Structure formats: C-alpha cells, structure tokens
Amino acid sequence: MVVDDQAVVRAGFAAIVDAEPDLDVVGEAEDGAAAVRLAGELAPDVVLMDIRMPGMDGLTATRLLTEGRGAEAPRVLVLTTFDQDVYVHDALRAGASGFLLKDALPEELLAGIRVVASGEAMLAPTVTRRLIAAFADAAPAPDPELLESLTPREREVLTLVAAGHTNAEIAGALGVTTGTVKSHVNALLGKLGLRDRVQATILAYDLGLARPRRTP
Length: 216
Description:
There is one protein chain. By secondary structure, this protein is α/β, with parallel strands linked by helices. Helices cover 49% and strands 9% of the residues. The protein is built from ten helices and five strands. Strand 1 (2-3), helix 1 (7-18) and strand 2 (28-29) form a beta-alpha-beta unit. The longest helix has 15 residues, at 178-192. The radius of gyration is 17 Å and the shape is globular. The model has no long low-confidence stretch (mean pLDDT 82).
C-alpha cells in the first residue's frame, strides 16, 4: 500500500511496484487516517509511508498500524527526505521497519520493499548512521541492564548489526557461518524483546554500543 498526500507521487510509486511480477499495489491512501482504515480492510504486507502529510501524519499512522500487533502488523517502509524530516528516528521507534529517501532509484525502492516483506529491516548503513546520529540524542535512554541477558558474542553481534553490517559480513568478521550469525541475531532480539534489526540498531546507539561516524 502506498501512502502519500501527493497523487502524482503515489501514482509514480504504484507504477514502479505494479510493473514487478511478484509485487502488487493493493491500495493507496492520501493521509495517515486513510492508511490506517485501508490497512484494516486490505491487510497489506508492506506500507510505503510518507511522514509529512496533512491530518494524521505518517508517524502516528505507523504507530497505529504496528503497535501491539506483533507479526500481524504490516511492515512499514518510511519515505523521507533526509535533510528535512526530523521525525524519522521517532518513526523507527513507532514501529517502522526501515526507510528510503524519496529520491531513491526504482531498483532501490523495489529492493527495500522485498527486504522488509521478507521480515528483515531496511538499513542503508551510511544513511542510517547519519539519521540516528541526528536524532538519538533526544531519545530517552534505555536501561543498561537490558544487556545483562546477552552473551559476550551476542553483544558483539549487536554492535556489528548497529554498524549496518549484513549477516554475511558479520560472519566474515567473526569467522563463523551466516547460520550462526542468524541464530545470534534471533537470540538477542528475543532476549531484548525487539522486533527486528532496526530496533536493535536504535537500542545499540542509545546504550552507547555504537557511535555514528560524523561527516564533515
């Protein structure tokens, strides 16, 4: 489902998605309220969500679509402009599975949809670090005792996840198999009560396990 207050933007995204044999646009919404209503009727797997819209914004809609729904919630992929949108960090906290810049290439958009549809998080490492760096300072600090349940290896994996590394890259860095990394990721998500790698990344930054790379 595509959610944006500009009809031309919605039509453009929908055309890109519908051209793919394995993807279908089941609905379009012009604001957050319409998105929540339609999602209840259409049960989309993925929602492309603009943030800044009149009426109910994308942040509120994301929270309503995901909060307390567990695996039944749609995967929300936030569409944003990095230099203007100060709500991205909050959107990730509200339950979004990742984000894309609005000027992303069509192949990047399609890849992002497929990634979140598969249950993973859409983390573009360089942009993710910059966004979290910009907004994490205003977030309430979590309890450091959360990490006490993790093994040293799980904590190491969490740090690498927060740096934006894939399972294959983490496996190479640690000298283990990708299956082992996946097991560690699943274990730490379960212990910390997190839904996906996006939430794990935010927690790692908030706890000081990861530090953004400041750009000039």
